[in-house]
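Posting this for the archive.
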Amino acid sequence: MNHALDTAAGEQVFLEFEDNSLLPLLFGEHDRHLARIEADLGVSLVSRGNRLAISGPPSATRAAESALNLLYDRLRRGLAVETADVEGALKLAAAGGQAPIEADLMVRTRKRLIVPRSPGQAAYIAAMRGHDLVFGLGPAGTGKTYLAVAAAVAMMAEGKVDRIVLSRPAVEAGERLGFLPGDLKEKVDPYLRPLYDALHDMLPVDQVIRRLTNGEIEVAPLAFMRGRTLAHSFVILDEAQNTTPTQMKMFLTRLGEGSRMVVTGDMTQIDLPKGVRSGLGVALDVLDGVAGVGVVKFGERDVVRHAMVTRIVRAYDRHEARESAADKVPER
């Protein structure tokens, strides 16, 4: 419940919350969540009982109102509100998100309920629900791989797929497997570790071990996909910017009956030899407009890791823009 008043300083909105017991969690320890919203939006937040006054420019007060309603809805659903959740609510509010996140955009696994924290994440989850093949593109920290693994685990739990196949190119940063010590498993595991980490965040350890052992979950380098047809599976290719066009075509044509496929990558982080075109870039060109293909592009506002990651991504974007502009300056 809320109502607004015009003031000399802009607009004042009053929110009234039904459950007082949730307010300490909503406001945060020492009101740190309120302080974060004030600093980000330039508004003033004053609480009295179960009412909260929001004062500031009209657009900022509306964004604060939306963010607080989104966070309060999380608490009503039994979910925690941490600093990252506050940042996510602010991003959703800035993008025009007013209503609580719909249940069909949440991903439930054995260990957690995952709620999108940015407009890009919401679009990504919707795309994975509605398309057979989805490309998730963007910088580190946007949840491309994490959400894809979460969606795969949820679909397996719901009986919609029989197994999960997670893959990555095994050559990155100029390193090749033959020069690494150990047997094949020891050679490829470092490349696949982020996929294992995501699995352990979704499932109890004993389930991960059991499903890996019986083949319900397979984590393997891209080369192991050749010659196979992956039916009734949720298949994920991570770091796809490091595939060649031939490798990408091979992977995409593994898609079998009753399967879903998600391909993630960051076109600014290509480690292929100079002169070799990324298979991800070629696939995006070739499949443009093809029915059943969804493409979701993440930006810096979708970064949901530590706030420092957002600042790093933004700084690199500015640096690359300056270098690109300098390269285009004609010589005299």
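DSSP finds eleven helices and twelve strands in the chain. The radius of gyration is 23 Å.
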